[in-house]
Amino acid sequence: MDATFPIAPNEVRFQSLLDNSPELILYQDQEGIILDANPAFLALVELPKEQVLHRSYYEFLPPDVRALFRKKLREAVTTGHPVRFDLSASQGNSAPRHWDVVKVPLLEHGRVVGVHMLARDVTEKVKSQEAMFTQNRDLQQFAYIVSHNLRAPLANALGLATLLGTEEAGSPHFQETHAHLQANLQQLDQVLRDMNVILAVREQPGREAPESVPLAEVVHQVVEGLHESLVQAGGTIDVQIPKDFQVHTNRSFLHSIFFNLLSNALKYRADGRPLRVVVTATGNPAGAKTIEVADNGSGFDQEGAGAHVFRLYQRFHPHHAGRGVGLYLVKTHVEALGGRITVHSRVDEGTRFSIFLP
Fold first, then answer.
1. pTM for the whole structure
2. Do the beta carbons of residue 82 and residue 116 sit within 8 Å?
3. Of 115, 251, 287, 306, which is least surrounded by CB within 10 A?
């Protein structure tokens, strides 16, 4: 009777892992040449296995991460120990993904003969962590509002209400105390209104679906709405955006962003020269958009402001009326659109805001 020799269990397990794992798995030599690749990796690069094997793995990597992979491969080969790292990278024109990568040296007789690489997509986990960080930051911000911007006028109002009860109606002290009480209640009401606006902004992204928006049209609508103030200030807003420049986004958010930025430029213009604001927009083949709003206004001390520029109730022009809400809303809108905003400013040299949208 012929004997039956089963396949080694370890080999079966490894082949099953290679074929069915959602993680990217590669077997490479010491120089990064691909000796084997699992279906998940082949699906990512959209190539059959015969067009992947015996090619350098670096051909499939974005140029900006190749040096990191070479360094980690060298470290694994040199030490003979697994090396783990994380990075953000994109494949083709797709959005960047976050990866948790492990390079495990394969040893034979104490010598490294190859390296297994496992890469796990942790994008959703990273997004969840970032969302939690944002929520915690917002909670801290609201705690600050409650402890400072709400408590002070409320405590004053309570004290004034008690004092009002000791004064005779119609007396000068009664009228003065009543006026102070009314002012504190109005301040309290304004803070509550601001908080309602902020909460509404954070809830709104799910209500209005993104659409293809002609950016120049939105900016011109805002400029038209500010026409009277612009004429009184003797200023100009130069919109250098092509008519066919489209942004796939939320129209109302865009309108709010430009209304706040251009209103600020008008409010904080320099006294010694006519206001000039230039609005530009550029895009790249991957779809990312850069929008800039630059003015020649009074500017502010950016180094002194530090990370507080976009925080709620932060003001850097004490001689102008304002509540310090506009830039907070701008940043909130931009981030809700999946973008980011930066600012560059110097005293008496103007301010430039740069918005980066996906």
1. 0.53
2. no
3. 306
Element (H, E) at 103: strand 97-108
pLDDT in tens, 187-197: 787 677 766 76
Within 10 angstroms of residue 119's Cβ, the number of other Cβ atoms is 21
The reply to whether 80 and 117 lie within a common domain is yes
| 105, 16: one domain | yes
DSSP-assigned beta bridge partners for residue 213 = 247
Residues 119 and 98: their CA atoms lie apart, in Å, by 10
Q: Between 329 and 194, whose confidence is greater?
A: 329
Dump pLDDT digits (tens) for 96-111. 889 999 999 999 888 9
Instruction: Please indicate, yes or no, if residue 111 is contained in any of the structural domains.
Output: yes
Instruction: Tell me which residue range forms the domain holding 80.
Output: 9-121
Same domain, 53 and 164: no
263 and 352 part of one domain: yes
Q: Is the pLDDT of residue 318 over 60?
A: no
206: CB partners within 8 A, 6+ apart: none
Inside any domain, residue 150: yes
For residues 125-149, one letter each, b for 16 or more C-beta atoms within 10 angstroms of the residue's C-beta and e for the rest, the string is ebeeeeeeeeeeeeeeeeeebeeeb
Any residues with CB less than 8 A from the CB of 179 and at least 6 apart, and which?
none
| Residues 241 and 358 grouped into a single domain | yes
Contact indicator for 270, 297 with CB cutoff of 8 Å: yes
